[in-house]
C-alpha cells in the first residue's frame, strides 16, 4: 500500500477555454544557489544527480510530452510568445537544450517572440550558435550587478567579468538582449553610501549595450541566507528613502538613454518591450509546462459567450522526479479564482504597465465599466491618472506608490463596486 495522500482529481470546466497564445517552460535547475533566491530550483551543488545527461534528457522528454498533451487538452497554441525560464535553462547540456527547443518549434506561431533565460557564466559561442539556428529570438541574461563590491553578497556562480563577456558575445548575434538587474543589494556596514552610484554605474554600462532592462528591487525572502545575514546585522539593506531616490535616479538615467519605463520594473527602447511579460500583465491566459510551472486558463461563460466564466490557476508539482514520472498529470494545486478576485487581478496587473488597464477588454470579459467600479479611487488620484482610448493608467511617476492606489481600488471593489 502506498502511504501517499489520495490524489485529488480535478473536474475542469467543460466550456472551451479562451485561446492560449503564450507558453512558459520551467527548467528548475541551477549551477548554484544564490543567497537571495526562493524560487523553485535545485542546484548542482546540492543535488548533483540531477545534472546527469540522462536525468536532463528525461526532464526534457517530460516537458515535450506535457506540451503536446496540454496543448490538446486546453486547445492551446500556436504560441505567439514562448519563454524558457527557470532556474537556469542554459545549464542544461547543450544537446538536451537543443532537443527541447527543436521539439517546441512546431508549437511556435510565425513571428513568435521566443526567449531563453541564461546565466552569464553558462553562455558560450557554441550555445549561441546552436540557438541562432532555431526560432529563439531573445536572450534574457541574469546580470544582477556589475559591481565587484556587491557581487559577493549574492553568492552567485560566475563573475562580473562573465556578465560583461557574455553581453559582448550575445551582441554578435541577431538576438534581442535583455538583462536583469537588482536594486538594493545589501552591503557591509559603512559601504552603503556608494550604493546608488554603484547601481547607476551598472545601468549606464548596460544601457549602451542592451535594449531591455528589468530592474527589480531585491526583496529579502524569509529563510534565505541573505535575509539571515541582514537579520544578524552582517549586511545592511538601503532604507526605503534611499531605494526611492535610487529608483528616481535610475528612471532619469535610463530615460536619458532612450529607455521607456513601460512597466513598474521594466525599461525598454521603443519596440523592444517583452511581449511575453506583457501577456502576463494584460492577464492573457498562458500555459506553463515543467515542474513547478504555473498556468492560468480562462473559460468562457457558457450562457454569455464573450464573458469570462471561470479563471483557473494550475501550479505544477515542485518535484522534478515525480514530474518526469507523470508529466501531464493535473496536480491538486488548482485554484478557482472568483469573479471579484479575477477582476482585481486584471486591475492590479494592468496598472503595473504604462499603458494601464484595457477598459474595453475588462468590459467585454466582466461586463463592467472600470470608471464605474473604482470611481472614488480614480477621483482621488485624478492628477496622477492618464486616460487614453480604451485604457486608464497610473502616470509612471506614481508607479512607486502603486500599492497604495491598489489598496484603495480593492477596498472599493469590496464595498460592492463590482455590481
Ligand atoms: S540562478 Fe536564478 S533561479 Fe537559480 S538560484 Fe540564482 S536566482 Fe535562483
What would you note in describing this structure?
- Helix content is 36%, strand content 23%.
- The chain has helices at 53-73, 94-104, 125-132, 151-154, 160-170, 195-207, 225-231, 240-256, 275-281, 320-325, 339-350, 359-366, 370-373, 375-380, 402-417, and strands spanning 20-27, 29-30, 42-43, 76-86, 108-118, 138-144, 176-183, 212-217, 260-263, 266-268, 286-289, 294-300, 308-315, 334-337, 357-358, 385-388, 391-394.
- The protein has 2 domains: 20-278, pyruvate-formate lyase- activating enzyme (Alpha-Beta Horseshoe), CATH 3.80.30.20; 340-419, no CATH class.
- It has a 9-stranded mixed sheet with strand order 9-10-8-7-6-5-4-1-11, with helices on both faces. Strands 12-13-14 form a 3-stranded antiparallel sheet.
- The model is unreliable at 1-9 (pLDDT under 50).
- The protein is of the alpha/beta class and 419 residues long.
- The N and C termini lie far apart (51 Å).
- It has 15 helices and 17 strands.
- 39% of the residues are buried.
- It binds iron/sulfur cluster.
- The site of iron/sulfur cluster has 11 residues, from loops.
Amino acid at each position: 500500500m502506498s502511504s501517499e495522500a489520495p490524489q485529488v482529481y480535478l473536474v475542469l470546466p467543460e466550456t472551451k477555454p479562451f485561446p492560449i497564445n503564450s507558453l512558459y517552460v520551467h527548467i528548475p535547475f541551477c549551477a548554484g544557489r544564490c543567497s537571495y533566491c526562493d524560487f523553485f530550483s535545485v542546484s548542482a551543488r546540492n543535488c548533483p544527480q540531477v545534472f546527469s545527461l540522462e536525468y536532463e534528457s528525461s526532464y526534457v522528454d517530460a516537458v515535450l510530452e506535457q506540451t503536446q498533451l496540454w496543448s490538446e487538452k486546453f486547445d492551446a497554441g500556436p504560441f505567439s510568445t514562448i519563454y524558457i525560464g527557470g532556474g537556469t535553462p542554459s545549464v542544461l547540456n547543450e544537446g538536451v537544450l537543443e532537443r527541447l527547443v527543436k521539439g517546441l518549434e512546431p508549437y511556435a506561431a510565425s513571428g513568435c517572440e521566443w526567449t531563453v533565460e541564461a546565466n552569464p557564466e553558462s553562455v558560450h559561442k557554441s550555445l549561441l550558435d546552436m540557438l541562432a539556428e532555431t526560432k529563439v529570438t531573445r536572450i534574457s541574461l541574469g546580470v544582477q550587478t556589475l559591481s565587484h563590491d556587491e557581487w559577493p553578497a549574492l553568492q552567485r556562480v560566475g563573475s562580473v567579468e562573465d556578465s560583461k563577456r557574455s553581453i559582448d558575445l550575445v551582441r554578435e548575434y541577431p538576438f534581442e538582449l535583455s538583462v536583469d538587474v537588482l536594486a538594493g543589494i545589501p552591503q557591509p556596514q559603512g559601504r552603503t553610501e556608494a550604493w546608488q552610484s554603484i547601481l547607476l554605474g551598472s545601468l549606464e554600462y548596460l544601457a549602451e549595450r542592451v535594449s531591455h532592462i528589468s530592474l527589480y528591487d531585491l526583496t529579502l525572502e524569509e529563510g534565505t541566507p541573505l535575509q539571515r545575514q541582514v537579520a544578524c546585522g552582517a549586511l545592511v539593506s538601503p532604507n526605503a528613502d534611499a531605494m526611492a531616490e535610487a529608483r528616481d535616479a535610475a528612471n532619469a538615467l535610463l530615460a536619458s538613454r532612450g529607455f521607456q519605463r513601460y512597466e513598474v520594473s521594466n525599461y525598454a527602447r521603443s519596440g523592444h518591450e517583452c511581449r511575453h511579460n506583457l501577456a502576463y500583465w494584460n492577464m492573457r491566459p498562458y500555459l506553463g509546462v515543467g515542474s513547478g510551472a504555473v498556468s492560468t486558463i480562462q473559460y468562457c461563460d457558457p450562457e454569455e459567450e464573450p464573458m469570462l466564466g471561470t479563471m483557473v490557476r494550475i501550479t505544477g508539482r515542485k518535484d522534478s522526479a515525480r514530474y518526469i514520472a507523470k508529466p501531464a498529470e493535473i496536480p491538486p494545486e488548482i485554484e478557482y479564482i472568483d469573479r471579484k478576485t479575477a477582476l482585481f487581478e486584471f486591475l492590479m496587473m494592468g496598472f503595473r504597465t504604462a499603458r494601464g488597464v484595457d477598459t474595453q477588454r475588462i468590459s467585454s470579459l466582466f461586463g463592467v465599466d472600470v470608471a464605474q467600479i473604482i470611481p472614488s479611487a480614480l477621483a482621488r488620484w485624478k492628477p496622477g491618472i492618464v486616460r487614453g482610448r480604451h485604457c486608464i493608467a497610473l502616470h509612471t511617476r506614481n508607479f512607486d506608490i502603486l500599492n497604495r492606489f491598489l489598496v484603495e481600488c480593492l477596498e472599493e471593489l469590496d464595498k460592492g463596486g463590482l455590481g
